[in-house]
Amino acid sequence: MALNLSETQVLDNIQILLEDIQNEFVKICNLVKGDIALILDPELSLPLSLCVDPPLLKKCRVTKLYELKDQDFQTTITKLFFYLKPRLEMMSLVADYIRSQEKVSSSCEIFIVFVPRRSMICEKELEKLGVLGAASLIEFQMDLLPLDGDILTLPNLSFTRELIDNDTSQLLNIAKSLIKFQVFFGKFQTIDWIGEYSGIVSDILQKTITSSFSKKMENSKVDQLIIFDRRVDLLSPLVTQLTYEGLIDEIHGLQNGNVLLNPEVLGQRGNKKIRIPLNSTDPIYSLIRDKNMSTMGEFLKRTIKNIAEKYGSRTSAKTLGELKDFVKMLPPLQKKHHSLGTHLSIYQDLVRITGGGSVLKKRIEIELGMLADGEKHFDYLKELIYREEDINIVLRLLCIQSIVIGGLKNKQFDFFRREIVHTYGFEHVVTLTNLEKLGLLKKKEGGNTFNSLRKNLKLFDDNFFKTNDISLVHSGYAPLSIRLIQKLFDNKNGWKSIDDLIKNNLGTNYGSIELVPKEKKSQNSKIQNFTKKLCLVFFIGGVTYAEISALRILSQRENSNVEFIIATTNMLNGNQLIRTSFPEKEK
Amino acid sequence: MENPSVHWNQFDRYYYQKRLVFHMGWNEIDLDHYLIESAPFGGLIALLRDDQKIINIKNIKTNKNCIFIYTCSGKLISELDYGHKQRVKAFGWTLDEKLIIVYDDCEIVVFDIFGEKIKTKCITSRDSTVHLVYKAKVWNNGVVILTKKNRLFIVENLSQPRFEEYSVPENLGIVSDLEILQPKFSLTGHTEVFVSNLAKNLFIIDNDQTLEIEFQEMITHLKVSPTGRLLAYYTETGNLHVISTDFRSHFLEFQMNSKIKPKQIAWCSSDTVLLNFEKKNTLLMVAPSQSFLKYEYDEPLYLMTEEDGIRIFTNSCCEFLSKVPEVVVNIFGIGSTSFSSLLYDASQSYEKESSKGDEVIRSKMDQLPKAITDCITASSWVFRRDLQKKLLNAAAIGKSYLDNFVHDIFADMCKDLRVLNEVRGWEIGMPLTYRQFEKIGIDLLIERLINRKHHYVALKICEYLRIRKDRVLVRWACQKVKSENETDEQILKSIISKLGKEENVSFASIASVAYSESKNDLAIKLLDYEKSASEQVPLLINMKNPGLALVKAIECANPDLIYLVLLYLLNNEDINENSLFQILSNKDMAINLLIKYCKYKKKDLLYKLYFQLKRDPKVVGLLKITESLSDKINLEMKLKIRNESLIAFGVSKNNFLKKITEDNIKLVKLQQDYQQRLELVFIGLSINQTTAKLLELDLEKEAKKMKKTFKIPNDRYWWIKLRALAKRHRWKKLYTWAKNEKSPIGYDPFVEICIKNRVGNEALNYIPLVKDPYNQVKFYLRLNKFEQAANIAIKEKNQNLLQHVKSLAPKNLNIPSHI
Description:
The structure holds two protein chains of two kinds.
Chain A: H1 15-29, E1 36-40, H2 45-49, H3 54-59, E2 62-67, E3 79-84, H4 91-104, E4 109-114, H5 120-128, E5 135-139, E6 145-148, E7 151-153, H6 161-165, H7 171-185, E8 190-194, H8 196-211, E9 224-229, H9 244-251, E10 254-255, E11 258-261, E12 274-277, H10 285-288, H11 293-316, H12 320-354, H13 359-373, H14 378-386, H15 391-404, H16 410-424, H17 428-437, H18 449-457, H19 464-467, H20 480-490, H21 499-505, E13 510-514, H22 518-528, E14 533-540, H23 545-556, E15 562-568, H24 574-580
Helix pairs in contact in A: 7-8, 11-12, 13-15, 15-24
Chain B: E1 8-11, E2 14-23, E3 34-38, E4 45-49, E5 66-70, E6 76-81, E7 88-93, E8 99-103, E9 107-111, E10 117-122, E11 133-139, E12 142-147, E13 152-155, E14 164-166, E15 175-181, E16 192-197, E17 201-205, E18 210-214, E19 219-224, E20 230-235, E21 239-244, E22 250-255, E23 264-268, E24 272-277, E25 282-286, E26 292-296, E27 302-306, E28 309-313, E29 317-323, H1 326-332, H2 339-351, H3 356-363, H4 368-381, H5 385-400, H6 408-424, H7 434-451, H8 455-465, H9 470-482, H10 488-499, H11 507-516, H12 520-528, H13 533-542, H14 546-555, H15 559-571, H16 577-584, H17 588-601, H18 603-614, H19 617-628, H20 635-651, H21 655-678, H22 687-696, H23 700-709, H24 714-727, H25 731-740, H26 748-756, H27 760-766, H28 773-782, H29 786-795, H30 799-808
Antiparallel strand pairs in B: 1-2, 2-29, 3-4, 4-5, 5-6, 7-8, 8-9, 9-10, 11-12, 12-13, 13-14, 15-16, 16-17, 17-18, 19-20, 20-21, 21-22, 23-24, 24-25, 25-26, 27-28, 28-29
Organism (chain B): Anaeramoeba flamelloides
Family (chain B): Belongs to the VPS16 family.
Protein name (chain B): Vacuolar protein sorting vps16
């Protein structure tokens, strides 16, 4: 659902990205007169709902919505728009459908709309299937869309499978989305990139920037771009998120900034799940989303007291003026009041799930033990398997174990793989090799690289409550990804100061590009001295809510002069990462 | 100097002027012997010999399979060879002066004016029968064809591959005339076709319906006005009618009372209709008021409607007939008292250094701005340069009286007129009126000039108007490349000297011309100047240099370009797998894309790729396993593929994968056996699930066999059995088992599972067996057995624990508070 972010955006006018894409959609619909049927690639239904809502559909005369699946459907509407990701395997389905529709009515107007861009290979396939003449091909450039005041996503690009397959075909689209972003918000002045994919994207950006940019874009609103290749740090998504927002995502799953809750969580009755939008327009949520679960109780109590006091001011109000002030205060107060009620219920439910004696609490303790000191918990892992716990949970913990101790010994490696395949089924032979491919699970060879990372980057910090360190997002573990980004701001030499660590321990590469000549920049920075520098961090392959919280914490530190906007191919959490490594079954 | 108004004819409340545009430069052309089509907006004219006319051989120019293309001034551009095989059924022009030819077998070819084929399209139905054209009509970029079997095909836009077939009414019969209403004018947004037949019917056909109108007499001619709003038709008894194209209003009925058919009827703008009665040497103009005007001619005519008038071609000259606009009438009209006319006269008196003009102008200062604009507008209409000058001079003088007059319209008009006068000359021969120029725009004008190879003029116009000139330069360079009297070096040098510093120049398109002229070296050199990879790659492929193409494609990480090269490699018979692998080696981005493609399209190649390029047979085995997981294939196939994967794992010496796959194959075979014997579903279950299922069925022996076959560790086996028995609520059996054998997993799970299944009494059996006293207490408390819990605490001598128990216990229970 489209958000109204006018009050909470970090970057002025971020809404323009949404409006631009909506206009594009209207333009496409206006290619025809009369009623329209949309037929969607199932993978596009959810992304599309981020920018196209029912009123817009109505305005565009879309009267029918279908998903393109195996089954046949027929409609009397003669203007058909197929919205497709350029996936080769979908083309024959489309072709079958067009042919059957042609038999019904010869006067159909058919458009194949590729999202976000046309693909030659798919067009060739359509041509081979003999339907190119019957349909017009266009593209719908659904690029970066606001998910919240400071989060942008490329909703049509879920880039996790690509990490396993080494599939680089979407990198150009990522670069193009960033070029479009600059058309709206001006040129980036510097780019810092880390990881192979980031390097490719940065390369494309550099080439385009030097060749064809208009004067208008000189006026940059976003100073810096950081491109982060998820493969540099696949550990952090596996660690249980322990912020309020992160935990909601772990337990209930957040989708497009919404959560679906069982009514009993909210103390209501019924069977239908309740959709709660969670974003910065919610006054309470924006205050608590980044807080560690253990400090939330205190905070909520204080907020309740605060609101109660404000309500109380009614009785103390004596003069007419005071009463007037009170009435003025009422609507925002009631909004807060209502929101507070919702969050109290959700919080209580989370406390029940994570509280003392719970399975989850024990698991988190084990997880933190591994991360803090490289503790070994093979018996616990074995028991999880023997209890036939959820495979996602088993594999997340097993991968964390493997990483922190620098790989499993031969015997253990084979043992766990065997127990998992015997218990959860043969297909997980593939899952396990995919995890190996990602480097999440491995046989012990050579030294333990994680130890030096932990030491040098202070990946574990017990004192997070006092220091307000980013490690509070995982109750002690500071996400490696964000620690790396932090280095860019805390050390004058940035990543150069940890060159060896990046190249040898992380086994990857990095780079930095100045796009605006130094003289010009100093001019600009004079003006900007008073405001915080704006930095866009793009995660290729996804980012977790906990990592976003960590970035927000970074920008709220006392001496910080940077504000972050987060852009990502998709939101990610541990379960999703594990699930991507499951075999893709041909249907 | 004569006043222009002497050439005006007053007609139907307006003035009309028939102006001589050109004396034709051609010799011995008799329009009567040709079928003629001219491009709109002062465009070229094409002449095709009419083979139904018998002509004296002496009068025929050269061979008969060609179309002559002339400018409006009668200068020959080319003799376009349209081929020998087929007959031309219709031809016409696109706005940028490409010639569209429709042949009798429904083939449509677009030619450039020098006879090069740009596009070929053939209308065939699905059953690929060949249709024969009965009548066809060409407009802009579209074609409509009526076949001899009365099928109606429409191509609305030749640059797109789509064509439509309209369903035709069965009673259409023999057609007398056919006319179209362009999609931009129709209400539906689709082409409408008007067809009249010998049975006195008129059909209006569009993409989903047909309207039929019966008439008193047969219609012989149909003509839609240039704005698409009006339809003129002429009947066999000599009646001319004008109606609206939506058939709601009737504007004119004009009776000729003559059975002589006009050779041509045509609109003059959208105001009047012209009837060409060649046999009577008469051209008749008819107005809506039924008034008419007669022009006499003693030569054959060809009429070409324009949006603001009509061009009339004869053997000897080209004329333009149009309404005189009001601003012009106001200035030059005899006895006109408009202020623009006074301003014009005043400017004339200035020339004579008389002060009279000054007084006139000062007398009506308030009307001056309009008078100035009127003079400027009028200058746009006249063709005579002396009059243009005088009108602009009048405007300039008027302007000098005003401080705040916006100069731009004056300056723009001067510029535009300079450009127009250039193209209106005999050499270029494009008599564009200002209104036509406004309509087609400068881009199309430049395009036409380039098409006619007037590169120099086009370039000068671009420079004069300060607009992008890269297009002109590139097209010039493409011509230059074809030059045969110069060496490659010379050509390259002269191209680079002119284009090297320009931005946005597509060197690839120049290189591609060089390649098609078999100048490969020149092409590659030119390509080096190309900045965009998407331009380089396709050409390099064409030039059979896929290796370099692939490198360029990878450099810009463009999957489309990479695929373009890959598809070329896969589909080219000259390239065998070895050379494919050679080109691909070390190009990971390309290999991964190819793998993605092969997964759907070319499985056989996929495995070879892994063996050859990735040198990783293990992956092949895993791919096979993934393949075997598909729901689409049957069990036998699955086993076969899994067996194949064993070979790969063997080669890669991957013992774990080999062993686990062998286990699986063994399992499936066992499951097949159970499935048959027990008539229950086993296939698809994991080893744990299979064992559990056997235990649930009390097939202890079989379960033990599973344990042995797959070396299930004892503790895992206990877990499986525990859950299986609990699921079936075999509590007694569970207890016996626990008593007789020592549990390797302790007894906590036993307690837990009993509590979970709400059989508390059963749970009590196992609590004493639990090792950890804290857990014992915990379990007792969960079952509300406070006394037992307290006893443990006492036994453990743990005061705190005891306190804890006491605090939870109901008050009436006698729990000691101290040990």
